[in-house]
């Protein structure tokens, strides 16, 4: 099954913007910037893992583990600079990673 990765990224970018708007209204600019930074940093790996998932080389659980395994490595710089509490930063970051996993896994039959 072929996946159009540009469409996946566009969907994820919109999802991050929506997540920021609904969860961190006062920090939407910083949240969106940090969310986009996550996508930029993971883009190459996401593309590889998405292709592997679509081809059946890895399972949906493996994909989720690979993506979520990157969460500790990613820093939310803009939100921390904006003064948002650590708990809220971590909740938003978790939301972004779950959005990535759920969106991509949802594309695979």
Q: Give the uncertain stretches in residue-range form.
A: none
Q: Mean pLDDT, rounded to whole units? A: 93
Total DSSP helices: 5
Distance between the termini: 9 Å
Derived from helix and strand composition plus strand pairing, the structural class reads mainly alpha
Query: How would a crystallographer describe the biggest sheet?
Result: none
Number of strands: 0
Supply the number of structural domains: 1
Q: What's the Cα radius of gyration?
A: 14 Å
| Percent helix range | over 70%
Q: How are helices and strands ordered from N to C?
A: HHHHH
Shape: elongated
Characterize the quaternary organization of these chains: single chain
Measured by DSSP, the beta-strand proportion falls in: under 5%
Question: Care to describe what's here?
Answer:
The protein has 109 residues and is mainly α. The protein is 76% helix and 0% strand. The protein has helices at 5-23, 28-55, 60-68, 77-81, 86-107. The longest helix has 28 residues, at 28-55. The mean pLDDT is 93.
Descriptors:
single chain; 109 residues; mainly alpha; 5 helices; elongated
Compose a concise summary of this entry.
By secondary structure, the chain is mainly α.
Task: Annotate the secondary structure layout.
Elements: H1 5-23, H2 28-55, H3 60-68, H4 77-81, H5 86-107
